Amino acid sequence: PPPDPERSFYYPLHLDLDLERGPWDDDDFDVDEVEEGPVLALCVAGAGDRRTLSRWIAGLQETNPALSRIPVVFRLGGVTTCQEDPP
Known about the structure:
Elements: H1 50-63
C-alpha cells in the first residue's frame, strides 16, 4: 500500500516530549548587576579600537535602525597575557 501522506517518520503528527526538569538542571544562577542596564549585544573583536567597533555597530544598524536611538557603551580593555616562567 502507498504511504499515508499525512503521516511521516520524519515529521510526526504528535510529539511526546518530556519537558519536566531533570536532576542535572541547575536551578541556581547568578545575575550580574551592571550600571549600564541590560546588555543587548556583545562584541569580541581582534582589534579593539574605535574604528572596528564603529563598523560593528554600523553593521547592526543596517538591519535594526532603532539602534541609532539606543545608547551604546564600549569598554575598550587592553589585552592581558599570562606569561609564566618555565620550570
